[in-house]
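Deliverable D2.4 — example input (structure tokens):
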């Protein structure tokens, strides 16, 4: 039995990149929701658009997680 180290490294690299991307999108969405709350409390305009963008970003991250689960679980294929 031998280990294909190149493939293992590729899987590890893709995993790290995907995790960083998903966490970054969720963090961006949370930041947008926080900015919308601050803007709404201050009486400024545009809070609804920023909040919508924040929820869309969180939704996109959720879809990425669901797609990853689809790829991992063989029952769905």
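Example output (designed residues):
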């Amino acid at each position: 039995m031998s280990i294909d180290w190149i493939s293992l490294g590729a899987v590890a690299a893709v995993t790290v990149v995907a995790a960083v991307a998903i966490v970054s999108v969720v963090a961006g969405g949370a930041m947008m929701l926080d900015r919308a709350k601050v803007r709404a409390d201050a009486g400024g305009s545009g809070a609804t658009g920023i909040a919508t963008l924040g929820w869309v970003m969180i939704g996109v991250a959720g879809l990425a997680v669901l797609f990853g689960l689809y790829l991992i679980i063989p029952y769905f294929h």
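Residues 36 and 47 are 4 Å apart (CA to CA).
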